[in-house]
Amino acid sequence: MQTYHAKSDNTERKWVIIDAADQVLGRLSTRVAAILRGKNKPEYTPHCDVGDFVIIVNASRVRLTGGKLTSKQYFSHTGHPGGKAWTSLETVMKTHPERTIERAVKGMMPRTRLGRKQLRKLKVYAGAEHPHEAQQPRPVQI
User: Does residue 49 form part of some domain?
Assistant: First the structure.
């Protein structure tokens, strides 16, 4: 017996669509990260990109538990002295709700070149419309 190692160039990638309406953000993000990495497939190989493309719709209707909407803060820095910036989750949800899911999933991906490549297969939309009908995505229940 030899151990099977998948090759990323001969892997068939499918498109899946997930409706984020009334889904808890953390639970949704862990499931999406596993699909992007390919951990739900029997041919999963840690050093190869074998995951599927993921489309998330209704990102503005994602559910947050506890007091996260008012108390959670996102931190960024410009790189210059005194360039700290704090943004509340409430502000982000009003202006760009898709960034909340993108950032949650990004935190669950590996911090490598492969992780960044896998993260590019995530497409998040605030509403129910998306431009990927030609790929014929299959719906996935979380």
Answer: yes
| CB atoms closer than 10 angstroms to residue 118 | 22
Q: What CATH number should be reported for the domain holding residue 117?
A: 3.90.1180.10
- Total-model pTM: 0.93
Evaluate whether 18 touches 142 at the Cβ level (below 8 Å): yes
2 domain-assigned: no
Task: List the alpha helices (DSSP H) in the chain.
Answer: 25-37, 68-71, 89-95, 98-106, 113-119
- Let me know: does 53 contact 123? Beta carbons within 8 Å: yes
Q: Counting every residue, how long is the chain?
A: 142
What's the CA gap between 110 and 112, in Å, rounded? 6
Question: Bridge partners of 76?
Answer: 85
Tokens of 18: 């997930």
Residue 76 corresponds to which amino acid? Answer: S
**The pLDDT of residue 109 is above 90:** yes
Point out which residues pair with 122 in neighbouring strands: 54
